[in-house]
Amino acid sequence: MSNNKNQDNYIKGRGAQQNVHNRFMQQVYETRDDFLEYCRLEGEEADKNRTQYLPIFPKTIVNKVTSPDVGMQYSMNPYQGCEHGCIYCYARNTHEFWGYSAGLDFERKILIKKDAAALLEAKIKHKKWKAQTIVMSGNTDCYQPAEKKFEITRACLEVFLKYRHPVGIITKNALLLRDLDILKELGQYGLVGVNISVTSLSEETRRILEPRTVSIKKRLDTIRILSENGIPVNAMLAPIIPGINSHEIIALAKAVSESGACSMAFTVVRLNGAIGQLFTEWIHKTLPDKATKVLHQIAACHGGSLNDSRFGIRSRGEGKIATQLHDLMRLARRSYFKDKTFPALNVVLHEQYKDGQMKLF
């Protein structure tokens, strides 16, 4: 990919290039040109571009997933907001519910749920709870940079192991390997499955799409190490963005399969809510020569609009371009995943360990 990024006013290390208006807020915040000029003359920084960690104290942590487009029944998120800064991330819109912007705020104001492990333990110990896989990172990455400091995800994995409860993980960060000891124990009982997101094989593409994520090599290495230790991995080739990574489908499937993934899944990019505005500004700054073509191709997958909320269609897309993407995926599965399957997780053990130790009688 040719990177013809416009360096003028480009915020390095971030995906979003602005804070778009929060649709739930009456007031609009804007940075005026006269203020920027004042800062320039005074030699001051108008925006320090620093990440803030803000503790919050929710009463529950496990969420029932009702969307028919998502292959999970329950999810939990130790963090809200995500410093990875992926420009296409559907979770950006959820930051508005917390009173922040889906733009830079999503990447720089990270909400920390320090009580997550205790809330999880209370949930799965409840007498009415029946074990079903709880997926960590249904919204934001549980192994984003904040995890290195707070270790909330590790504490939650210890709870899952203690009560022999099945857990799924979605991440694009090799920090997950820090917890290989716990993951191996969970894997011995068939209690864990990991979904690793691999969006491109190009480091140049990765850097502009997902500015604070780990390298592609580290992600493929993570798949390999997990697989060598008996932990099943599903590769998430998502999202596929026409004109940016759509030409890599076959190569991506080959790479993740050879690294040890036992299945793969994908979605067609959709730019709902504030993400359409953020992505449009981003691509005009980052890939101006391709911007119009890419935006038109994305719209062609969603009935002529960047915004698509139709269940059953929004993540698959429709039309000629989407059909071509699905045809490529079918060919990739036949070529590299023909005899591979992702195993079902063990939901039987938990009942015996509900009180914290295996029942003897």
UniProtKB/TrEMBL annotation:
CDD domains (UniProt xref): Radical_SAM (cd01335)
Gene Ontology molecular function terms on file: catalytic activity; iron-sulfur cluster binding; metal ion binding
Keywords annotated in UniProt: Iron, Iron-sulfur, Metal-binding
Record-annotated Radical SAM core domain positions: 68-305
A Pfam entry, by short name: Radical_SAM
SUPFAM superfamilies registered for this protein in UniProt: Radical SAM enzymes (SSF102114)
InterPro entries for this protein: Elp3/MiaA/NifB-like_rSAM, MJ0683-like, rSAM, rSAM_sf
Cited PANTHER family: SLR0285 PROTEIN
Protein name per Swiss-Prot or TrEMBL: PA0069 family radical SAM protein
